[in-house]
Amino acid sequence: MTGLSVLAMAGGLFVLGMMPQPKNKQMALAAQCGGGMLFALGLLGIAWSLAPPLA
Predict the structure, then answer these.
(1) What would the pLDDT profile of 3-30 be if each residue is shown by its tens digit?
(2) Using CA atoms, how far apart are residues 22 and 28, in angstroms rounded to an integer?
(3) Which helix (H) or strand (E) holds 22?
């Protein structure tokens, strides 16, 4: 789970920072939103894996 979270965070950072943005503003906003969601899901996955089990 932690490995997938790290991959999601890396993919989100790649989309946000290194991927060239399209000229169309709506497409650029959609790409940024997708990158932000990937990064946020990665952070949530890492937090979930570090939290102690509640059972």
Answers:
(1) 888 888 888 888 888 777 778 888 888 8
(2) 5
(3) none
